Amino acid sequence: MKICKDCGKEVSKSAKACPNCGKKMKKPIALFVILGIVVIIIISAIASGNKEEARQKEFKQNEIATYKDVNYSITNIERTNGKEYFEAKDGKEYIIITIKIENKSSEKISYNGLDWKMEDGTGDENSYAIWGGDTNSDLSSGDLNAGGTKTGTIAFEIPKGDHDLTLKYYETLIDSERAFEFDITD
Questions:
Q1: Which of 130, 140, 68, 143 lies closest to 99, judged by CA?
Q2: pTM (2 decimals)?
Q3: CA 84, 86, 92, 94 torsion-angle sign
Q4: For the segment 121-135, what is each residue's pLDDT rounded down to a tens digit?
Q5: CA distance 93 to 113
């Protein structure tokens, strides 16, 4: 039941007019309008939150990839069968990529060699490998202050002679979507 605003008597919610005074009963249109506006705002917020900034994600090995105001570049590529106790498996070789990271942002960033993966010509995505080289040059992990530069190597075990390679960078170890990638054509 609801109350008639004209005569103050109780009226059924389904009544189109007050049975006492004959005044037409208004439907709560304002409630539907407010509810509709709220729904539109929620849908708009969700849709705009899912938009990714349009940016280049694929680079050639001689290009500089810029991601979140940080420049990433490949300065050297070499292949090896490994050293002493770290020889590549039969039919495989190591590819050692030297990466240069330049923090052009105004904040400290973290870097980690494990954020990089190599996709070989078979589509297999390989993680960082230990190959027995100079550990002082490994990219490893750490923090890089604003304006700082870090250069280091990362190695991957790949099929011998494979030249259909893609070096992929993931912002964190748990990301499933790559931030950007380099086409390796050495």
A1: 140
A2: 0.68
A3: negative
A4: 999 999 888 777 776
A5: 19
